[in-house]
Amino acid sequence: MIMDILKSGAERIGLTLSPAQLNRFDIYRAELQDWNRRINLTGIMGERDIQIKHFLDALTLYRIWPRTEFAKGLRIIDIGTGGGIPGIPLKIAFPEINLALLEANRKKAAFLKYIIVRLGLDNVEVINNRAECAAYENQYRERFHMVLARAVAPLVTLLELALPFCMVGGRFIAQKKGEIAEELERAIIAIGLLGGRLRDVVNIELDELSDQRKLIVVYKESATPMKYPRRPGIPSKRPLA
């Protein structure tokens, strides 16, 4: 059965994927593998690992926001999405969401535009820009209910890149793994400076994902000061903490 590992894992977190959705995931898997031979989309290439470490891992974000809310057409942006993870798996599972994929690399952005058409996904925008620049565009700044980032930088840097996109009352969710206590402690000051409040650290407990994966949930309490994010490269070179 296609995507059988993904199907059973999704069921254990409360999601039932239809045959049509599983077929889309399988097409996505094949295209990731094919394009990865030409451009570096992911270091994870095996079919089993793609199902678990990309697709199922992305769907664990369902733990943070109930399905009824996804169905209301949440505006979600995936920062530094690369090959579209976690945004595209969420879009396949929850077609009602409005999704933006932010990717600075031109070749990766080209793949994203291709795969959106290939999968027949609507209400998906590819933003080929750096977060430090896109965050100052009126159509993106503080316009999203949910901002996602997956292992693209240390948490303190991610916060400066991501929270400017999050509307007041929305949430930023960072996917991390391993021991993060020190990283989280360093980020507390930045969370407050950027208008956020640490809400939760959710441990992902699935047999398939046994490497201490966590969801860091930050609630947006007030508007991010307009001086953030700083110019390109500075959030990583000179973190706020």
Name its key features.
single chain, about 240 residues, alpha/beta, 10 helices, about 40% helix, about 20% strand, globular
Largest sheet: 7 strands, mixed
Order of strands in the sheet with most strands: 3-2-1-4-5-7-6
Measured distance between first and last alpha carbons: 48 Å
What is the gyration radius calculated from CA atoms?
A: 17 Å
> Which regions contain 5 or more consecutive residues with pLDDT less than 50?
none
Please state the average pLDDT score: 92
Morphology call:
globular
Q: How many helix segments? A: 10
E-strand count: 7
Order of helices and strands: HHHHEHEHEHEHEHEEH
- Structural class designation: alpha/beta
Helix content: 25-40%
Beta-strand residue fraction: 15-25%
**So what's the oligomer here?**
single chain
Layout of helices and strands:
Blueprint: H1 4-12, H2 19-36, H3 47-59, H4 67-70, E1 75-79, H5 87-93, E2 98-102, H6 106-119, E3 124-127, H7 131-134, E4 144-150, H8 155-162, E5 166-177, H9 181-193, E6 196-203, E7 213-220, H10 234-237
Parallel strand pairs: 1-2, 1-4, 2-3, 4-5
Antiparallel strand pairs: 5-7, 6-7
Helix pairs in contact: 1-3, 2-6, 3-5, 8-9
Describe the structure.
This protein has helices at 4-12, 19-36, 47-59, 67-70, 87-93, 106-119, 131-134, 155-162, 181-193, 234-237; strands spanning 75-79, 98-102, 124-127, 144-150, 166-177, 196-203, 213-220. It has 241 residues and is α/β, with parallel strands linked by helices. A seven-stranded mixed β-sheet has the order 3-2-1-4-5-7-6, sandwiched between helices. It is globular. It starts with a helix and ends with a helix. The model has no long low-confidence stretch (mean pLDDT 92).
